[in-house]
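Figure 2 data, in text form.
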Amino acid sequence: MGGEEKRDIRGRLPRSKKIALDVACAKREMSQQQGIEEAIDFWLEIQDQIETLIERCESMGIDPKTALQQAAILWLEKHQ
């Protein structure tokens, strides 16, 4: 991202999320700007994965909501 144009983003976070951001950034020894950039990158990546999952489910005739619910149940069973 070296020569990439930067744009300001303004907004407000609920206090609990601001504290969580402060703690997470401190633990990882990164600035809040770096933390927010990483969070946005992660969110965008997840959106791509969700779109891919929905497309696959629809191509197989499976309701995406049902598939996500079943995946969540399997994950919980595995991690209990």
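Caption note: The helical segments are 15-27, 32-59, 64-78.
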